[in-house]
Every structure is written in structure tokens, then in C-alpha cells.
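Practice set, problem 2.
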Amino acid sequence: MREIILTLHILAAMIWVGGMLFMVIVLSPYVRKLPNSVELFQKVGKRFSIVGTFIGLPILFITGIGNMHSLGVSFSDLYNRTSQYASLLHDKIHLFILTFLIAILHDIYFGPRANKSETHRKITRVLGVINLFIGLVIVYMAAKLRFGG
């Protein structure tokens, strides 16, 4: 069972971080050249928001707790930072919470308003880049945890 939970966790992380990388590396350079770029970004962003933010991130949260349980790490271990592993996992969870909050702000507030003002468009872009950076840091932390913290 723990292999299934870990597989779902990795797949959800791939969707979340991979989707953001796709948007920055592939979609953005192409769409920016089009006359209706803001509209296209909003349509793709809305779709990614459903899959990445509202499905992927909750799956990451649930499977993350499952992974923690299967490894014998308790919430008390995290809170008290009883080991290097628990300390790193504690930090990873806090970054996950931050990325979730930024995603909600990006997807629900700023993204839908990006076509109304340049300020909203810039804030949306900055929040997306910050979230991508945090996502990459979380992936690094996950790799480090895999090797013992």
C-alpha cells in the first residue's frame, strides 16, 4: 500500500511542478507573441488550476500524510524536530502550505483579474514564478529526504 501512496504522491508532484515548468518554458514564450495572450493564459491557467491546485495539491497533502505515517514519523516528531529528517520534513510541509496559499491567491484572486489591469497581470506572473521556485525547492527537499534528510 505504501508504494501506491508514494506513487500517487510523485504523480501529483509531477503534475504540479511539471505543469508550472510547462507554463514557463513552453507555453509562455509561445503565447506571449499572440494578440490574445492574456485570454489564452487565463483559459489554460483555469484548466491547470483545476487539475494542479484543486486536485493535485490536495492529493499531495493526503498522500504526504500517508507517506509520513508509513515511515513512522508522527506530528509530534515534526513539531519537536526530533531528527534531521523530521526537521527537514517540517520545513517541507511549511513550504507546501505556503505554495498552496500562493496558488489559491494566484488562481482565485489575481489570475481572473489579470486581463483587467497590468498590475494584476504582473502580480499573477510574480506569484507563479515564486510558486515554481518554491515547488522546485520542495522537490529538492523530497530528494534529500529520500536519502535520509
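Problem 2, part (b): a different protein.
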Amino acid sequence: MEKPYDILAIMDRLPHRYPFLLIDRILEFVPGEKVVAIKNVTINEPFFQGHFPNEPVMPGVLIVEAMAQAGAFLVLDSIDKEKRERTFFYFSAIDKVRFRKKVVPGDQLILEIELLRKRSTAAKMTGIARVDGTRVAEAELMAAIGYGT
């Protein structure tokens, strides 16, 4: 990886913002192939107010969303900035999802996303989420890619 991908670089590529931006840093990046991202899970996350007050657990759907955002970074990075600002990246399918362990405040979620296939209007990826080296979730993700004017 030639250049650092901090939160500002992530925000340059993704349209998501607080409270829905779910990746904090890129650790490893191979353009067109793979990305490894971090999500630092803190008790300050708004979803912990209701999920669950006496035993905070990160919702599985948000773990999958974090994987999708890392995947979007992987795909959108290959598009020049001017066109990227008009590009939309939407979930179209999620398959083979498995949640293996709880993710709780204080955990550091490591998201490993590999691009399986990319066409002009769609991408298919596989994702694994780990905490302390232990697999906590996995999924196959499909996304539709659209270009606005």
C-alpha cells in the first residue's frame, strides 16, 4: 500500500457520514483485489442505546454493513474522483451470512473483503469480520453500481 488511507481518505471515497460511517481506517489495500479495514467499536455508538441496554451487542446487520462499506471503498477507489462523486453503490444481495460471536464495545473489528467479480454495473465480494483473530461474521455481498449525471 503506497499511501495511507485514514478516515479522510475513506470519507473522500464513501458518501457515508456519522452516525453511519462504519469503517475507521484501511490497513491493507490491493486495488481491484482486496481491502482490510478497521471498525473500532465503542460504547458511544448510538445503536448501543437500544441494542441492548444491559448487554451491548453490535447488531449483525451493521457488521455486514461495515463489510459492504469496505467493499465499496475497494470498488469506488478505482473510479476517478469526478465520476466517483456521481456513482452509487447499493446492496443488491447478501448470501451465506454467518454470525459466530458477539461484537461488543471495546472490540476492534477487522474487515477483510475480497473482490470476486466486478462488472460495470455490479460487484460480488466475500467478507470476513474478525476480532482478535477470531472470525465473528462472514458473508458474500453483491452490490449494484449506478452512475448519475
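Answer key, part (b): Helices lie at 7-13, 60-76, 81-84. The first strand starts at residue 25 and ends at 30.
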